[in-house]
TrEMBL record:
Taxonomic lineage: Eukaryota, Metazoa, Ecdysozoa, Arthropoda, Hexapoda
Protein name (record): Shootin-1
Pro residues compositional bias, start-end: 374-396
Low complexity: compositionally biased ranges: 23-38
Any single GO BP term: neuron projection morphogenesis
Basic and acidic residues composition bias: residue spans: 46-55, 451-464
One annotated Gene Ontology cellular component of this protein: axonal growth cone
Region of interest (Disordered), residue spans: 1-55, 370-403, 445-466
UniProt xrefs under InterPro entries: Shootin-1
Amino acid sequence: MNQNNRHTIAIPKYNAGSNIPLRRTLSRQSSNSSITSTKPRLSSDPAHRWKQKYEESEEKRKALLTEKEKALRSLNDLEKKHLNLQVKHEHLETELFEKNEEFTKLSTASKNLYKEYETLKNQYETETGAMARALKDATQWYKENKQLKRKTLLLADKDTVDEGVDAGEAAHDADIENLNKTIKQLSTEVAELQTELDSVRQNEFQTLELNAKLSEDLDLVRRENMSLQKNLDELRTEHNQLLRVSQMMTKEMEEMREMKECQRNEIKDLRKEAGEQKKERNILAHQSNLLLQGLSEESGTDSLMLLQEIENLKRTIEDERTKYEEELNSLQERLEDQENNSHIEILEERLKLVEAELQEAIARAEAAEQNLRAPPPPPPPPPPPPLIPMDKPPVVPLRRRKSRATVEDIAITIGVQETAAEKKPPAPGVNEDIINAIKEGKFTLRKRRKDNNNEPKEKDKETPKAVSELLNILGSLRRAPKKRQSQLIADAQQ
């Protein structure tokens, strides 16, 4: 719908009188129609959306449940397979252990049989060699015997020859038997020696193989040792470099700490000097404001007392303020230096105590200001001055015109703010003689009475009488006639 409306808005329609397209009216109509068309949808769309979300979440939940069941089934099947495999594994381990035992037994038996076979083989070889040698000797001996027999037949008679031949054959047979026995003994010894020689050769071959492996391992170890030595040298050089860098960094850190301590000391000194200069500036500003008021010569003692009291109050306030500011700064510096120290809580408590003391001092100052604001009882009326002709209005000197402004400056510098009631226009009804007497300087301030009450001296210091007398004079000036009202207000604003 919105797309159709937009398309209809883009089509220009013209009035009967002019050729200017009415785009604004169409846009307004389309906006109104879109607002009216979307109102019922807005009411039904959230419910429909939430319903769709609920259905989608239900479908997802069901799908997750089915997947969970499938996963549980597959997990059970896998557990069963795992158990069967564990049983098979244990059975195979037992079979393997039995077969290993049989293999060890058979290997030992085969080694023994091989040794016996080697011994028998060597014995057979030695015996066959000895037999071949004996047969050769026997054939030679047989041939020689035949030749000897033929010779003996020709030389002697048969009887003598037969007896000698029988005795020679018997001796020859005994020699042959002895030779056979020695041959058998030697063949057994040779077989044993041959088996030992074969075993020694096998051991030699194994030792050669081990020697080759050990030589290879030794070469590898040497290479590793060389690489490790190089790495160790590099690490030593890096360690030495890091030590040098660390020493340089420690030196720089010490220098930075010394610089920081020097800067802190300089900042402290500058803060002290700034506080002292601020105090002196405030005191001098007060003195200048009070001296510009231009009090009369007769009220000089009271003004001096007033100045002294105001200066004392201001100095005490400035001293306390600077003291508390220094304590706060020192505590803040300690907190910055010892952030991770366990004394932070104690320092915070001390800071709270100092803040409480500062608030008490501020409350005392406010109480003193309020006491200064409260005017004392009015002084007794002064003697009537001589009458002045009323042909011309009395001219206020410039020094007295600024009395109002100077008093307001005094109040601002002291911290005393006048109430709304004091800012009302002065009411008429006071004799002009008193005003003229004040202008001529004949009016004297009332001396401060000595209090016989047993009040503490701190209240006397906090509420000076000179300020109250000045406020009384201001109250008497407010009761001037209407003719002088506008002029005095203009002078005070100047």
